[in-house]
Amino acid sequence: MAYSEKVLDHYENPRNVGSLDKDDPHVGTGMVGAPACGDVMKLQIKVSDDGVIEDAKFKTYGCGSAIASSSLVTEWLKGKTLNEAAQIKNSAIAEELALPPVKIHCSVLAEDAIKAAVADFKSKQGH
Amino acid sequence: MWLWRKLYSVTTNFFNLLNIPEQFVIDLEKLNQHYQTIQKEIHPDRFASTNKNDQLQSVKKTAELNVAYQTLKSPLRRAEYLLHIHGLDMMHEKNTAVSQDFLMQQMEWREELETHKKNKASLEALSLNIQKEKKEILHLLPECFKKKNDLHEAIEMTRKLNFIEKIEQHISDALIEIE
Question: What's the gap in Å between the CA of B101 and the closest CA on chain A?
């Protein structure tokens, strides 16, 4: 299957790979996995006191589309509020990366990872 | 993606086809015996001198039998197939729920694999660790499948098994690369 140029770009030069301190109260961690393909994705956000995402990192073990999806969302997340972040839809990710139908689940995984990271951050803040 | 998914439309029940009770715990020896017996009965060679239609049917049946056998032989595929029979497709793309601890563990294993992918001893040690977890899951699965009205534990275990077989594959690929 041919990957789109954007997928290849993110796959070859992934943005924001790495980890944030998961015990930091300003950091939210989202861990998700795709049972269908065994991919695992970790997405972390660092949120400022006024509720803006100032940093995002990811670590993904999976196919090119899963890596590209998570790399792309880390770029999108920076500068967004938590509410804005929670509104990122998998369809937007899939569209941006021109994912074929069989790879849509990779964008679903990335959306789930954002939600999980936001939820983790909120639970840490006691919301 | 495993082949039986492509045979969704097939109405044959793989357990019936191989004359094995429809449950997770099966007698593998019986499965092998039944497979070999049926295979002989329907083998295309036996229809070499008959009409084209019989020959074609024989080829089709043999292909189906092989998929059925491979599906039931592997605990993971058998579990997936049983869930499928119960109308539960654990592979649904919208469903990514697996326990956080388990995913964390997966992430750690993947990191370990990445760090030591050229070190045979480390890979073997990692593989041994994973084997232990796998054994545990295979030990629990039969009980999970007994609760026919509530298969959510069976789904969770099957998912875990799928993740585990995936990383096992990656480890074995890495080991081949070293040799």
Answer: 9
